[in-house]
């Protein structure tokens, strides 16, 4: 038994550990690296990976590494957060993207992180870390700050307890972040300035269904010093449209 492997682990927990070994920083993994990250013996990992690859949950590349398979992505699209929110939001994202030609993002809170459920890339070359399906820290992204501002107290407490630095401008002071969250609630938007990646700033607003903030809509640009007001106004129009459409679906 691996030193990292707990006795009595179920097959399901082992399969989930293998799938959970992948993240935005580890999109391709060798068998040995998969075993290490999953806390499983290589022999056990080899058997599980073979079954997962046969089913389509994992793909084996030409150089022998493994990636998340297309079948998992297809299943993920069936989740309500994807099928309902993405389909309703799509025309609003497309309109805003056409008007600004900037990178537009739609995100939801997933535990203590922000999960990106849709994104349209901008024409201007801006370093954007997020991709559809990526999870990123809430404190370093505008969409994340919006969602954190409306998150339960226990989530805020946990996030405040581990404010990791991603660039020299990442906010790692709980007091400063708390002030930003207060402003996000009162002003209805949040911003970042090169806090997740150098050369990229962002602004985001909440998407509200009924009385609940269910998502955040944001845009990533090179600089917010010019045109910030217009971007916020456009985001608010789009977010309100998404919220109204979702609310109408609830009543149907």
UniProtKB/TrEMBL annotation:
A Pfam family the protein falls into: IclR_C
Q: What is this protein called?
A: IclR family transcriptional regulator
Q: Which organism is it from?
A: Kineococcus gynurae
Alphabetical keyword list: DNA-binding, Transcription, Transcription regulation
The HTH iclR-type domain, residue ranges: 9-70
SMART domains xref list: HTH_ICLR (SM00346)
Keyword set includes Ribosomal protein:
no
Q: Per the database record, which ranges form the IclR-ED domain? A: 71-248
Q: Which InterPro entries match?
A: GAF-like_dom_sf, HTH_MetabolicPath_Reg, Tscrpt_reg_IclR_C, Tscrpt_reg_IclR_N, WH-like_DNA-bd_sf, WH_DNA-bd_sf
């Amino acid at each position: 038994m691996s030193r990292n492997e707990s006795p009595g682990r179920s097959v399901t927990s082992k399969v989930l550990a293998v799938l959970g070994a992948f993240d935005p920083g580890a999109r391709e993994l060798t068998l040995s690296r998969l075993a290490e990250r999953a806390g499983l013996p290589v022999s056990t990992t080899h058997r599980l990976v073979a079954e997962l690859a046969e089913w389509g949950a994992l793909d084996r590349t030409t150089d022998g590494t493994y990636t998340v398979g297309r079948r998992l992505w297809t299943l993920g699209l069936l989740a309500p957060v994807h099928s309902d929110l993405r389909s309703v939001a799509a025309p609003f994202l497309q309109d805003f993207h056409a008007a600004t030609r900037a990178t537009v993002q739609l995100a939801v809170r997933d535990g203590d992180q922000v999960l990106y459920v849709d994104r349209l890339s901008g024409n201007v070359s801006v370093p954007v870390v997020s991709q559809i399906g990526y999870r990123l820290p809430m404190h370093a992204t505008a969409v994340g700050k919006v969602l954190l501002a409306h998150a339960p107290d226990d989530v805020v407490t946990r996030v405040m307890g581990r404010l990791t630095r991603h660039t020299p401008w990442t906010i790692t002071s709980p007091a400063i972040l708390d002030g930003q969250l207060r402003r996000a609630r009162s002003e209805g938007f949040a911003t970042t300035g090169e806090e997740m990646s150098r050369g990229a700033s962002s602004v985001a607003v909440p998407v509200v269904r009924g009385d609940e903030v269910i998502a955040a809509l944001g845009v990533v640009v090179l600089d917010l010093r010019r045109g910030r007001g217009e971007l916020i106004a456009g985001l608010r129009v789009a977010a309100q449209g998404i919220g109204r459409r979702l609310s109408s679906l609830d009543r149907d």
